[in-house]
UniProtKB/TrEMBL annotation, chain A:
<feature type="transmembrane region" description="Helical">
    <location>
        <begin position="120"/>
        <end position="140"/>
    </location>
</feature>
<dbReference type="GO" id="GO:0055085">
    <property type="term" value="P:transmembrane transport"/>
</dbReference>
<dbReference type="InterPro" id="IPR051393">
    <property type="entry name" value="ABC_transporter_permease"/>
</dbReference>
<dbReference type="GO" id="GO:0005886">
    <property type="term" value="C:plasma membrane"/>
</dbReference>
<feature type="transmembrane region" description="Helical">
    <location>
        <begin position="269"/>
        <end position="293"/>
    </location>
</feature>
<feature type="transmembrane region" description="Helical">
    <location>
        <begin position="87"/>
        <end position="108"/>
    </location>
</feature>
<keyword id="KW-0472">Membrane</keyword>
UniProtKB/TrEMBL annotation, chains B, E:
<feature type="domain" description="ABC transporter">
    <location>
        <begin position="16"/>
        <end position="248"/>
    </location>
</feature>
<keyword id="KW-0472">Membrane</keyword>
<dbReference type="GO" id="GO:0140359">
    <property type="term" value="F:ABC-type transporter activity"/>
</dbReference>
<dbReference type="InterPro" id="IPR013611">
    <property type="entry name" value="Transp-assoc_OB_typ2"/>
</dbReference>
<dbReference type="InterPro" id="IPR047641">
    <property type="entry name" value="ABC_transpr_MalK/UgpC-like"/>
</dbReference>
<protein>
    <submittedName>
        <fullName>Multiple sugar transport system ATP-binding protein</fullName>
    </submittedName>
</protein>
<dbReference type="InterPro" id="IPR012340">
    <property type="entry name" value="NA-bd_OB-fold"/>
</dbReference>
Automatic annotation (TrEMBL), chain D:
<comment type="similarity">
    <text>Belongs to the binding-protein-dependent transport system permease family.</text>
</comment>
<dbReference type="GO" id="GO:0055085">
    <property type="term" value="P:transmembrane transport"/>
</dbReference>
<keyword id="KW-0813">Transport</keyword>
<dbReference type="Pfam" id="PF00528">
    <property type="entry name" value="BPD_transp_1"/>
</dbReference>
<dbReference type="InterPro" id="IPR035906">
    <property type="entry name" value="MetI-like_sf"/>
</dbReference>
<keyword id="KW-0812">Transmembrane</keyword>
<feature type="transmembrane region" description="Helical">
    <location>
        <begin position="146"/>
        <end position="164"/>
    </location>
</feature>
């Protein structure tokens, strides 16, 4: 007969562990929070501080001016215009990216073969170098000779996008969509693979057609992803800069000047650090609001225990 | 008496039959099952039991159309439904893992099949309430699945399946997450309900108690093959082989040799002999725990000397674990016995089963 | 050995020659070592970096700038006077073209070591001229000739244009304004950009756009598009800085002719000189001296000759143009360039202090609005004048 | 028979999806085709003829890129920078994300807010102060300037946190009962389990820093630490317009390693994201 | 090396006791439990049963330190461990949902606690193999959790818990995912193993069979209160109230009125009276299904007229569902009865339980 298990499984001594459990969380987050403090919080705080000063970097002077920067921003700063443009850009990029991204993900997810291929195709723009690609796009949008004008533009009677105060922002938004749809597709594809298959089957047995199955099963279960995608794309919309700077420079006549671009223009291009900081302040306020929305939405989802 | 609100199906119950059914997963070496021939009595409960992985769930999925069989046909009444999509087969199913819609309340979960069938609001409410009453979840209808305990979820799943009065009802271990008490009660309710609805029911379980209790027609499966099918009582009394004997009612089995008139166990322990035992040189002897007794027993009987290892209280009786000739046995006894005690177990001749060496039934119970 | 850091943008335009010049300088002595930082973007980006450097306390010793930002450096007190430096090399100083040199002075003080100066020129697609029955040898010199030629050269459908004569900054605008008798700043010190001459000019250009003789390009696409349109043969006449000469003539498969800037009928052209010079930021006397010696190497006849060959700019050092082995034969071979260099020029006006960029950017927007007809010349220019006055007052 | 009808219908559906996806792909790929086409066209032919077709094939642009730009150095820098950022992020962000999602401690909610807020701060807003800081430490013009600001990546923490939340808490509790300290849980349980999520944010981090131009252009003054997008901008001049041929050749060369990498890691990417956003079995 | 005080158990098993323990979740209206006083016998198995949501898991989590009780103290032996962190308590736990490490093989999962304790490679291998043998997963050690079935995962979880020979072992429904046959076998193994290890074990289940079979000390919980605790046999025989009676062994309960000498059910059905019944006007009468008989029964007994509704085969007996005076009853009978048949049920006086109207035990079983 073999050895009794109990003789093998006699108690072992557990090594003593120090105060680890109490301090460990702080040890683990400290490096991150330190870096974030240095590279995000502190600089942002500085930017806020500068709103009350007129700063001449070249001269190396700083003068307290109270709220003068705010007054100027309101008066000549085009902050309202940029708020409107930013909002418009958000509307032009967030819902389309999400709707198209989800549709494409659903299409790819429904394929029996070739999923990897289409995934790669749609992800390509995410991996592309934006400096280079916005030049290509600018070129595509160029009046008359650009591909847009020669094909699609002519067909629907919308031409010379970049020179038009009405169409320049949509042009940038098209590039924004082009760049991020692939990312949205990937996020949704991932979420779709996680839709519980048994729920789809249960719905089928319950007599639900394709649309009902999507609406009653798929859509609720990709809810967290939808919030996530919404936040990510909104944040990107708040920060959009590179495409605007290369494609339209915020023009014509500020028709495509988002807050981020205005911030750069005033603060750096116009040497108006104080004025730029006012715009920064507005941006930070929006960012904080977005954070709050995100925290509330996801906290609810986390509690609802959808996982 | 009023007609049950869920029993609004008109006409005779649908018989369900499969013929020569086979299912292989692409890439798998052997089919999950093949050459399955089953006739489920119309309006009755057909129960499929078998160990984990033997193909029970897969069979149900073929019945409801979620999986397409590789070969063979499935008939509901006169209709060949083999290629009809799940959405249009009109069968209801209780899933092994509940499969509740997490964002819908219990009420909306149950109402879902009715909504899909565009049933009016008033009737929907009536039916949902009736189904909830049957499954005893009236008070929980406003809760989300995440706010329900496992057993409550399972009951919502059952209510959802029965709510539209399906002509064919499939259940995949619908009671596995309930506690014993509730399980026994629900079992009774389900059975009564099923009779009322007249739905042809196919019910999968790995609990032999449940199988025997509910079945009109019992099927014992093993590795995708049907080991035995028929009336539950018949199968319990005359298990076709040791697998069935062991799986249904965990029969004690002992390998014995004939030696002259008597029988000898592997380690030489002698067992008193009996008429009716096979005359072949070696075979297996089986009896159930509840058929073992100590103390006086009249008539023909086998007697086994055994040693008590452990005794478990099982309500008013005890499940006693014993050693007999190097083999572990179980007996259900009224009497209290102490570990280490040596006792003589008596089994009435009519409760003895004989199987050949390869496990097939060899002698008949009188 | 003192190591000094010099920063310069526009690497593609003139980086190679700058590298050469300082390499020779470094090799020619061992007191000073120039560490040249090149950057291939606009001067604006360069300024942005210098700003960051200043904040960070790593201010470079000298930075190459164009006239557009010179005032910012001067008015902030950053730019160090260079009169003494230039005076320390009397021989070289004597060789410099005093007219061009004036472009680098403010209130009589020299704030940038001049390197080169470019003037505008009318680039002509000679093949297209001949095809339209025009003679590239007798290019348009007045607005009416310009308009007539543009009409002949364009097909009126927006596929082929005759002319592109503006920039999204005041470089061309100011030239035309000056030629027509206007000025950026009136005698009263107030803005002159809304005067009749300016309105005339804008109205003229608006007419060209309206008649499809000229495209209306917005700021963002302007530089790439202007070059592409000319190179692709879609614009037959391009009025632009002569510094584009090399790149514009390199990638085309047609003949390019050059002509002086045309002016309003009845006026003589006055062009704007765009100065390219080095501002000294070093404040430590020893570093200033080292920087001075390095900067002086930019204006030797050899350096100037090399620069002119590379950029088609006007020779600052008169000696360079006279010495045959330096530029003498260059002009013999490139007669067209002589035409450009013989134009009358004035330094390009910039707003004082930090205001120029904001003004220039607004100018570009307003000009585009006028050209596209979104606003009338008078209204647009009035807005511009108001802004200019406000900006000037704010400094 | 029903079988046939069903099969045929689903075949037609599949074909329809492929066609629709192909139509969308035209939009997604057209810019790439223009990029390739331009990069393979002789400079003086770029604007002539139909811009959609490639008629004058030439490798001149690539030759020029290799001649004028130290592309190998850029590649090397790119890998060093991106690789170090990634490693740094793994070392800094995984522990932090674990603590923020699965450990209880006073201040956790505040920490979360800080992380989320940092994720939202537009980084152009903070460029100058960061620049000043880096220069105080003498990091301008070094790889450090390209790496340090990105190691504490709020986005990575966010993604990882989603992932950890999808792992049942009992797994971590079980490890505690098994006698593991938080550090050992991190090393023995968290890191192995986080692999798919790490791959995912790795790919996203790789893509964005490989392609980033703004930051390198801000903190670099020469080629020493320059990454690949510099090569593209070499052929762009604000006042002269772009030298499209070589520029597009450089752009092609920039994207190439990413594409290869993506094709290799694609499967992992999806799996990783799937876990970050929900169920683990 | 310093030795942790909790790990120095040599020989004597650790008793586990809680005193006046309470736990509330922040924001919840009422505590999960309060004023809990429990003494778990050292080296024995304490079983906690109770309906879903009654606080069983929460109690275990307080014992092992994963949750901190709001009030009260927990003692392991003489040591107050209430505030000691989970990591230091040296208890092992089998989680309700297994909680295996998904990236580690079964072997590495089981070996993990040993690795954490820096046990040498050879001993680790020995111990893992012993634990695997006990849980019958020797063949599966190289598999990842995702490659195991639910029951196999659970067994890996058990092996991981016992591998370091814990002095206190907590198990949260460790057998709930096994089929009946395996469950019965594992139950026996676990019990044998526990005796051998001598670990003080607290075991949560909602299966009363398991509870009765395994417990040394049985605790019946309900809504965070202890309804009854003690020896399982004692509780089974003398349930303190109707909840316990019903939950353990689903007792049949009938509300009766005294009427003269006899007893009358709600609908007027008369039941023969008995000595020993309470003298109060109305009370509840209880008996177990297995204590009901038909046909001859000697001695004092109650007789109930009943109608057969349904009969379920349960191995060699039948569970018969009956109606008696408007109340549903269950009886376990040897004899076959047909639905609709009217029979007289006899229950021996010693098998009758009496409860007052508010559910408390009123009369004693003889
Ligand atoms: N999608 C699939 N692909 C390949 N094999 C599968 C698939 N689904 C099930 N199987 C295999 O088919 C066999 C039967 O599985 P099935 O789920 O029908 O078992 P079961 O009898 O329901 O078991 P349980 O009692 O554990 O639920 C198993 O061996 C399983 O591994
Ligand atoms: N983190 C929590 N926050 C608030 N309430 C909780 C939490 N965890 C458990 N509860 C509540 O505490 C009560 C007891 O839960 P517990 O998990 O202990 O039940 P249980 O007896 O183990 O049930 P089951 O048999 O279903 O596992 C339940 O009502 C539950 O809703
Ligand atoms: O490049 P430069 O120095 O010729 O500058 C003249 C410009 O074209 C004016 O923006
Ligand atoms: Mg199954
Ligand atoms: Mg529990």
């Amino acid at each position: 007969m073999s050895v009794s298990p109990a003789s093998v499984l006699r108690p072992i001594t557990m090594p003593r562990v120090g105060f680890a459990p109490l301090v460990a969380p702080y040890v683990l987050v400290a490096p991150l929070l330190g870096l974030i403090f240095i590279f995000a919080i502190l600089p942002a705080a500085l930017a806020l501080f500068l709103t009350f000063f007129e700063t001449d970097i070249l001269a190396g002077t700083m003068r307290f001016v109270g709220t003068a920067n705010f007054a100027r921003a309101a008066d000549r700063g085009n902050v309202l215009n940029s708020l409107r443009v930013t909002f418009l850009y958000t509307v032009l990029t967030v819902p389309p990216s999400m709707i198209l991204g989800l549709s494409i993900a659903l299409a790819i997810n429904g394929l029996r073969r070739g999923r990897m291929f289409w995934q790669a195709v749609y992800f390509l723009p995410v991996a592309a170098t934006l400096v280079a690609m916005s030049i290509v796009w600018r070129w595509m949008f160029v009046g008359r000779k650009g591909i847009i004008d020669q094909t699609f533009g002519q067909a629907i009677g919308l031409t010379d996008w970049l020179n038009s105060p009405v169409l320049s922002l949509p042009a940038v938004a098209i590039v924004g969509n082009w760049q991020q749809i692939g990312f949205v597709v990937i996020l949704y594809l991932a979420a779709l693979t996680a839709v519980p298959r048994h729920l789809l089957e249960a719905a089928r047995v319950d007599g639900a057609g394709a649309w009902s199955r999507f609406w009653h099963v798929t859509w609720p279960s990709i809810g967290p992803t939808t919030v996530f995608v919404g936040i990510i794309t909104s944040v990107d919309a708040l920060r959009v800069f590179d495409t605007i700077s290369t494609m339209t420079g915020g023009g014509p006549s500020r028709s495509s000047q988002t807050l981020a671009h205005l911030m750069w223009e005033r603060g750096i291009y116009f040497f108006d650090i104080g004025g730029g900081s006012v715009v920064t302040l507005v941006l930070l306020a929006l960012a904080l609001a977005a954070t709050a929305v995100q925290r509330l939405l996801t906290a609810r989802l986390e509690r609802a225990g959808t996982r | 008496m009023t007609v049950h609100p869920l029993a609004t199906r008109i006409g005779a119950p649908t018989p369900v039959a499969v013929h020569n059914l086979a299912k292989s997963w692409p890439g798998a070496q052997r089919p999950v099952f093949s050459e399955l021939d089953i006739d489920c009595p119309a309006g009755g409960i057909t129960i499929i039991v078998g160990p984990s992985g033997c193909g029970k769930t897969t069979f149900l999925r073929c019945l409801c159309g979620l999986d397409v069989p590789t070969k063979g046909e499935i008939r509901f009444g006169d209709q060949d439904v083999t290629r009809i999509d799940a959405q249009h087969r009109g069968v209801a199913m209780v899933f092994q893992n509940y499969a509740l819609y997490p964002t819908k309340t219990a009420f909306d979960n149950i109402a879902f099949p009715l909504r899909m069938a565009r049933v009016g609001a008033a009737e929907t409410a009536d039916r949902v309430r009736a189904a909830a009453a049957l499954t005893r979840i009236e008070g929980l209808l406003e809760r989300l699945p995440s706010q329900l305990s496992g057993g409550q979820r399972q009951r919502v799943g059952i209510a959802r399946a029965i709510v539209r009065g399906p002509s064919v009802l499939l259940m995949d271990e619908p009671l596995s997450n309930l506690d014993t008490k509730l399980r026994v009660e629900m079992r009774a309710e389900l059975s009564a309900l099923q009779r009322e609805l007249g739905a042809t029911t196919v019910y999968v379980t790995h609990d032999q108690t449940e199988a025997l209790a509910l079945a009109d027609h019992l099927i014992v499966m093993r590795d995708g093959k049907i080991e035995q099918q028929g009336a539950p009582e018949e199968i319990f009394r005359h298990p076709a082989d040791v697998f069935v004997a062991d799986f249904l009612g965990s029969m004690n089995l002992l390998a014995v040799r004939r030696e002259g008139e008597g029988m000898v166990l592997a380690d030489g322990t002698r067992v008193s002999s009996l008429p009716g035992a096979p005359s072949s040189g070696s075979f297996q002897l089986g009896f159930r725990a509840e058929d073992a007794h100590i103390g006086g027993l009249a008539g023909d009987r086998a007697t086994l000397p055994a040693m008590v290892r452990r005794s478990e209280l099982m309500g008013s009786e005890r499940l006693v674990h014993l050693h007999c000739g190097g083999v572990a046995l179980r007996a259900r006894l009224k009497q209290a016995v102490a570990p280490g005690e040596h006792i003589d177990l008596h089994v009435h001749a009519s409760a003895l089963h004989y199987f050949s060496d390869d496990g097939q039934r060899a002698g008949a119970v009188a | 050995q003192t190591e000094i850091r010099i920063v310069s943008g526009q690497e593609r335009q003139n980086g190679a020659v700058l590298v050469d010049i300082f390499k020779r300088f470094n090799a020619g002595q061992n007191r000073v070592l120039v560490d040249l930082e090149l950057d291939n973007r606009s001067d604006l980006d360069t300024t942005q970096k210098v700003l960051a450097d200043i904040v960070a306390g790593t201010t470079p010793d000298a930075v190459r700038i164009t006239g557009a930002v010179l005032r910012s450096y001067i008015d902030s007190g950053r730019a160090q006077p260079l009169d003494a430096c230039l005076a320390s090399a009397p021989k070289l100083a004597a060789q410099l073209d005093t007219g061009l040199l004036d472009g680098f002075r403010v209130n009589g003080t020299l704030y940038a070591m001049p390197w080169y100066v470019t003037l505008p020129a009318l680039f002509i697609n000679a093949d297209a001229f001949r095809a339209a029955g025009l003679d590239p040898e007798s290019p348009p010199a007045t607005w009416s000739e310009l308009e007539a030629a543009a009409a002949a050269l364009s097909n009126g459908s927006g596929d082929r244009y005759g002319l592109l004569m503006y920039m999204p900054n005041t470089y061309m605008f100011e030239g035309q304004l000056a030629s027509s008798g206007g000025a950026m700043v009136g005698p009263d010190g107030q803005s002159g950009v809304a005067g009749p001459a300016a309105v005339d000019q804008m109205a003229f250009m608006r007419r060209l756009v309206k008649d499809k003789r000229m495209p209306a390009l917005s700021q963002a696409v302007f530089w790439g598009e202007a070059a592409r349109l000319f190179q692709a043969g879609e614009v037959a006449m391009l009025l632009t800085s002569s510094s584009s000469y090399n790149s514009l003539t390199a990638n085309v498969n047609f003949d390019v002719a050059l002509a002086p800037m045309p002016a309003q009928d009845g006026h003589d052209p006055i062009t704007m000189a765009s100065g390219n010079g080095f501002v000294m930021l070093a404040t430590d006397p020893a570093r200033q001296e080292a920087t001075c010696s390095a900067l002086l190497s930019l204006i030797t006849p050899e350096s100037v000759a090399a620069t002119v060959r590379a950029t088609a700019s006007s020779p600052l050092n008169v000696a360079a143009a006279e010495i045959p082995e330096l530029l003498g034969d260059f002009y013999a071979k490139n007669r067209k360039l002589v035409v450009i260099n013989s134009q009358m020029s004035r330094p390009w006006y910039t707003l004082p202090g930090r205001a120029n960029n904001e003004f220039q950017s607004n100018f570009g927007d307003i000009q585009h609005e006028i050209l596209t007809g979104a606003t009338s010349p008078q209204d647009g220019l009035n807005r511009l004048a108001a802004l200019m006055n406000e900006l000037n007052a704010g400094q | 028979m029903t079988t046939h009808a069903g099969e045929t219908r689903s075949r037609i559906m599949q074909a329809g999806i492929h066609i629709a996806l192909a139509a969308g792909a035209v939009f997604m790929l057209l810019p790439f085709w223009l990029m390739l086409r331009t990069s393979f066209t002789a400079p003086d032919q770029i604007f002539s003829g139909n811009v959609l077709t490639l008629t004058h094939f030439s490798l001149d642009n690539y030759a020029r890129v290799f001649a004028e730009v130290p592309l190998l150095r850029y590649y090397l820098n790119g890998f060093v920078v991106v690789g170090t950022i990634f490693l740094g992020q793994v070392v800094i962000c995984v522990p932090a994300a674990y603590a923020l999602s699965r450990l209880r401690f006073a201040g956790r909610e505040l920490g979360l807010w800080i992380v989320l807020a940092a994720m939202m701060v537009p980084y152009h807003a903070t460029a100058i102060p960061i620049y000043v800081l880096l220069s105080q430490f003498g990091l301008i013009n070094t790889h450090g300037a390209l790496i340090l600001p990105f190691i504490g990546s709020a986005f990575s923490v966010f993604l990882l946190r989603q992932f950890f939340l999808s792992i049942p808490q009992s797994v971590f509790e079980s490890a505690r009962l098994d006698g593991a300290s938080p550090y050992r849980i991190l090393i023995h349980i968290v890191f192995p389990m986080a692999r798919p999520a790490i791959i995912t944010f790795g790919i996203l981090s790789f893509v964005s820093h490989w392609n980033d131009y703004f930051w390198p252009s801000f903190v670099l003054r020469n080629d020493f630490a320059a990454t690949v997008p510099f090569g593209i901008v070499r052929f762009l001049d604000q006042e002269l317009g772009a030298d499209y041929g070589p520029q597009m050749a450089a752009a092609t060369l920039t994207v190439l390693p990413l594409l290869i990498g993506f094709l290799i890691a694609q499967r992992q990417l999806i799996a990783g994201i799937a876990m970050s956003s929900g169920q683990v079995d």
